Fold these 4 entries.
Entry 1:
Amino acid sequence: MSKPRGLRIAGNWKMNQGVAETRAFFESLSKIQLPSGKSFAPGVTSSLYVPALSLSAAKDACAKAPAPWNGIAIGVQNAHWEKSGAYTGEISGPMLLEAGVKTVLIGHSERRQFFGETSETAFKRTVSLLQQGFEVMLCVGETRAQREAGQTESCLREQLAPVTFGGSTGPLMGFWNGRLLIAYEPVWAIGTGLTATPSQANDAHAFIRKLLKDQVGPDAAAKTPILYGGSVTPKNVAELMAQPEIDGALVGGASLKPDSFSQLF
Ligand code: PGA
């Protein structure tokens, strides 16, 4: 299946897998061969967002793994907008660059829900990291209460407002080239086993793309990959990825085991 923006299969380990488990994951993954052989299918790329303490082990083990697994980009799950300073518990862009990281997850719903992340702080992280050369995967998505109240679109509009602010000459001018990815993850579907139906997901993606088109421009809309996340598994991945507006998957639970992770490809 050929996709205009390619297809990204991304894993989010959340607060799982320390150094030993990370090494064991790649050891087992290395023994698995894809039906497509030593490469991902044409247009497919992969990234894995690991805990910061497992980053070095993941990068080493990944580099030693056979193709295609050595092509996975290893990233982290959050980073601060400032380059250094008094921000206890945070990690900065320069530290990540030094560690060889190229991709960062930002604004995941668990960070919004449990750690006070707002659309504004997620935006500050996003713009700073893009300016420092990273790829950023920005997560958005409505809660169950918002969906039931018919507020899915207003929620997505609010979460993306700082990003689209200023349109084609806004703070993200020059970055609408595919280095910013958006992950649509309905909160009610995360870790619950409840997946958005392919058409529910496709509709939300189409809405986001229209928002980008109307507020930033056709180029931004055409180049920004929009991934779906929320209980994606080897069983439902193909049907979701077949949707025209879906450019990839961000996968939590099913990315933790080498078997299920490999079956996402
Ligand atoms: P899940 O998590 O696949 O376990 O639902 C997805 C995510 O939170 O990124």
Entry 2:
Amino acid sequence: MAKVPQTEPLLNRRSTDDAQVKTEVKGWTLKHLVGLEHISRDEMEMVLDAAPQFLAVQQRESGIKKVPLLQGRLVVNLFLEPSTRTRVSFELAAKRLSADTLTMSASGSSVTKGESLHDTLATIEAMHTDIIVIRHAFAGAPDILAERHPSHIINAGDGYHEHPTQGLLDAFTMRRHIRKLRDDPEAGLDGVRVAIIGDIAHSRVARSNVWGLTKLGASVVLCGPTTLMPMAAKQLGVDTTSNLREAMDGADVVYALRMQTERQANSLFPSIREYIRLFRVDGESLKAAPEHALIMHPGPMNRDIELASDIADGPRSVVLEQVSNGVAIRMAVMHLLVNASRANA
Ligand code: CP
């Protein structure tokens, strides 16, 4: 783990607006967030526990929807693959923390002229960045950058590998609903059953969710066509099935994944019609799930393929709540990486 340099006590910068924002977090030492596979349950819970105060900042009806926790810091979003939710969410989260922000994509940058990723990062860092948020097509790119670059690196999705802030915002959304369902403000995800359905093989969201949710005590079943199930799925410590109704049986959360046709070199299932018949989350297939089961999807959604429109827009769906919670989770992550890791170094 790279050593974090000591800086001035940013945590002391408060305004009356921040009165309810608890800025001190004991025990956080991570400098980067590259994945959920190797972070501890305690670290995950520190993020989940820090997020509600940032959700409250966003929901302020009067006053400024901002806190100065990253004032004077520079956050660069380097998105070398397409994104709507994650890119906008990180940018908004940084602005809500009062950071300066820059967003770069592959098109229009010198990446298209053959510049190496290290050179691109070194060039950006010469402008004194604090956080670099990166989305990249190659699995492991954020880990390599974190080893060599002084900025805090946050993985916003690397190939099929990980999407850690998606995993955290999903766990946060599940935990909020489980707490309401059980009428227990302290409830965690221990014993919660999550069915993740669809194109598991190409999904970084599935991997981060599996690593994150199992660490938090949930049990996970992965369900999809065998051609879209990774060979090593069983080694992840989860159940697997190709029977949708079996997966839904007893599930507290039904999580549909996007069919990632752009990552499939060959057709990996007979037809979209066949996929819909066997794997779509819709009113009919949901009869196999408990009535309280939450419906989730990371977006972007192929409407009526992996998830029926009436279910996506219905009362059990928390798809848009996932998006709102994402900003709070990303505020929490950036605050912890910059402020808590320095304070605790
Ligand atoms: N969930 C997710 O990563 O969406 P985007 O690709 O739009 O960022």
Entry 3:
Amino acid sequence: MRVGVLTGGGDCPGLNAVIRAVVRKGVKEYDYEFVGFRDGWRGPLEGLTMPLGIDQVRGILPRGGTILGSSRTNPFKLEDGVEQIKANLAAAGVDALIAIGGEDTLGVATKLHDLGVKVVGVPKTIDNDLSGTDFTFGFDTAVNIASEAIDRLHTTAESHHRVLVVEVMGRHAGWIALHAGISGGANVVLIPERPFDIDEVCRYVEARFETKYAVIMVVSEGAVPIAAKDDSGMTLLTGEKDAFGHVRLGGIGERLASEIEARTGKEARAVVLGHVQRGGTPTAFDRWLATRFGLHAIAAVHDGDFGAMVALRGTDIVRVPLSEGTATLKLVSPEEYAEAEVFFG
Ligand code: F6P
């Protein structure tokens, strides 16, 4: 058996740990051969391959990024994309494919499986917004990076009696903001699921300064004010869209900081953590989760369980249909958000 592996979408810490586990178990227990496809779906689309064996995965467990490269290429945007992929898989002698990605990459995997491609999915995203799994790897690392940044920002905010608005990633879901906000002791957390009221936000700012402390506000890049719920102009930097139709987000932190400064008279600055949250070595939790996902993904290939996605449920790794894993986004519930609200202001 010859198995292809690809990583698609935004990279995240732990991708290399998955690749390593897939290859180590595949070679040792099943005597499989592997081929790496470069840069997400662009690899099978354009026939871009690289050798993938024990030598290539040695030493990569703690490394961030992905040795295979990534892209947001969408083969369904091309008229003959599916045929090209099938032809290139056949040319590389590939019997089965492991696709490691988020909603877009696994959405493509779901459609390809319906069209006869033998594929198993591994969920990844720092946003942690895939419904089929309790957690995705990369999320814990991102939360730790954001949390450490918040710790550092507390002291400088207090020295200068400032509002510091920390913009974190999270396109549709506020998981990073919520977890980092709670663990970092933020005074306000704003998430995409709950459009914010700028008057209320300013009241929190005033109340916090009355206690003689400064304000740390964590905001997801996809958060919007109530009045601008349908006015995406508030959050957009460029209006540019990727192959899956997602606009490039960013800018809400700056907008909030200047609005708060204008309304309250308090000095405010924005800190955008951006891709720092996706870079560098994975935490121990993410290495553990990614490794287990890899081990179970190659086992699914061995069982011929194509169309499956591995998922974490409690502490068990289970298999769910790819279509189920990518069907809906997992969002922060009002109840979970309310837990954080106790600390606002
Ligand atoms: O999909 C994960 C993610 O990190 C989102 O949180 C963010 O909106 C997006 O990727 C950024 O994508 P890019 O690196 O392509 O700008």
Entry 4:
Amino acid sequence: MVAKKNLCILILAAGKGTRMKSPLPKPLHIVCGIPIIAHILKAAQALSPAAIGLVVGHGADTVIETVKSNLSAWGISAPVVFVHQTDLSGSASAVKAALPLIEKFETVMVLNGDTPLLHTKTLDQMFDVHEANKCGAVVLGVTVPDPSGYGRIVRAEDGSFENITEDADADEETKKIAEINSGMYVFNSKLLQNALTQLTPQGPKREFYLTDTLALIKQMNAPVLVFGSEDYEQALGVNSKAQLAEAEQILRDRVALRLMDEGVTLVRPKEVFIDPEVKIGVDTFICPGCYISGKTVIGKNCYIEGNCYIKDSVIGDNVTLKMGTYIEESEVEETCQLGPYAHLRPKSVLKKGAKVGNFSEIKKSVIGEGSKVNHLSYIGDTVMGAGVNVGAGAITCNYDGKNKHQTVLEDHVFVGSNVNFVAPVTVREYAKIGAGSTITKEVPAESLAIARTRQVVLENKGVKKHD
Ligand code: UD1
Ligand code: CA
């Protein structure tokens, strides 16, 4: 998008968010894997403004800290200027707190910090309308099925903008208006600054309403336009946990629809939870109950059974994940098979065609091409070659209470059931380990290692048959 040198975007996120009934500041509540504020910052950055300001107040330290430490994870490279609002006396006071920033720009876009479903495209169109008509202000107005709680857009007889009346101050007639203020505006900066000086406190909480500036700007004989959009969902403001869940569902639906458009098969689209940035190849089949999050990339033709969890991972083509598989920050190459109930912890790599089965846990390990860890194992800090077969219940003892140590299993090693590898330890290629062994020393190539006590049989020492 072409850089908008005259535009500053100001995001209002200082409010108390009382209706969330939560100690967590409202901007940090999560919608589809990232905080509400991250959705807004992303949309703001996509417009290429000259500056982005974020007004913080309630829970400011937590908000600033979270935003600063996650900006790059959210893909935000534009600098964000934090503005402190100390009095928390309404949305207009929030803008006033940012005067030193907005004074430097000709045009100011103001966005409420609680509308995570906003579309960059709509904001861009609003900006264009504002510039083309030399407006004093443009506000996004949408018609919603249930306008309660929102500010209503009151129009004059000729249909032009008259004012915004807040829900708390509206009479019965005004409450019937279904066209609401979305909380997204574009202002001529000078006129906005002028209007801010003329406000008086309103409503039961004696707040300074940003919404009152629009009628004041109109009185200055500058055009004030309502920009309409059919898609009313984008205006959903999150004030309560119910609205948070509504936003989550709408965004998940949008993601599911996009993925199906791209050729992904979702058996029951409403019952999968896929984050917006996840990429999935064609004809990958996803069953209900899966949660696929973060920056995960999944190839084509995969078969993913129910209740799998995949976070920040890369899955190749033709992979099968059976029921209940859990994968975190790992890489699974093509044609691998996992599960049911396999667990890949961070930094695990499964090479082509590898298998990790029932109740096996892999941590920070490489499982070589075609190798198998099929039943009840723990493999940690291990480098495994190709064609290795790990028997049921084999365990790497990688931790001595202080440090982690490495296990190396070279190509074509065969590990019997219930073996312990006391790391650091290396098993050379084509070696075989007898079942029940505890391996503490290097095993040479092509040899058989057995490290267990021999069986002793004592006659007549068993259970007495006739006691
Ligand atoms: C606001 C609008 C309403 C609109 C609705 C859309 C006003 C007066 N009303 O109502 O017309 O329909 O959004 O969702 O603006 N904030 C601050 N500092 C404050 C108070 C609020 O930064 O002192 C921020 C909040 O963090 C929030 C935004 O301003 O992001 C809006 O505040 P909120 O209390 O949610 O306003 P609504 O009652 O939803
Ligand atoms: Ca709100």
